[in-house]
Design brief:
Layout lengths: L11 E5 L3 H13 L3 E6 L2 H10 L4 E4 L9 H10 L4 E5 L12 E4 L4 H15 L11 E3 L4
Parallel strand pairs: 1-2, 1-3, 3-4, 4-5
Antiparallel strand pairs: 5-6
Helix pairs in contact: 2-3
């Protein structure tokens, strides 16, 4: 019998976050957890460019961003490329729910973010997510 890590469908993540410390912490945590961070940006323009140019499995996006546009605009750009989005924000507008696979409420812990990504990965593999980590809501219709 072989033991090992289970196969992930999420390996390449784009972080879209306007709070520098949160962005840095997320980038570091994701790298330590074995994910490839394809970019960390704080605005719609840079996020859209990376979505168009890079292979991305998931966009991890705040709603509030620097400059013009917000996380819902990022989610629309990602949807045009069939890239799922997980919002990470303190307050998710009702209209944003249909644009993402889920929402992880801020503040969250490192453990909470990792558990949320594992739950989203399971959902994307078509598996039933038995228990959601604290602060995570999944929107299977997105």
């Amino acid at each position: 019998m072989m033991f090992g890590k289970r196969k992930r469908v999420i390996s390449r993540i784009l972080v879209v976050e306007d709070e520098p410390l949160v962005a840095f912490d997320n980038e570091h945590l994701l790298g330590e957890a074995g994910y490839k961070v394809v970019g960390t940006v704080d605005n719609l323009e840079d996020a859209t460019r990376l979505i168009d140019e890079e292979q991305i499995d998931l966009v991890l996006s705040d709603i509030s961003l620097s400059g013009d546009g917000d996380g819902t605009d990022v989610a629309r750009a990602a949807a045009a490329r069939n890239v799922p989005v997980l919002f990470v924000t303190a307050d998710l507008p009702e209209e944003a729910r249909k644009l993402a696979v889920g929402w992880l409420a801020k503040p969250y812990s490192d453990k909470g973010l990792k558990a949320a990504l594992e739950a989203v990965d399971e959902m994307m593999q078509g598996k039933r997510v038995k228990r959601l980590p604290a602060g995570l809501s999944l929107h299977e219709e997105a």
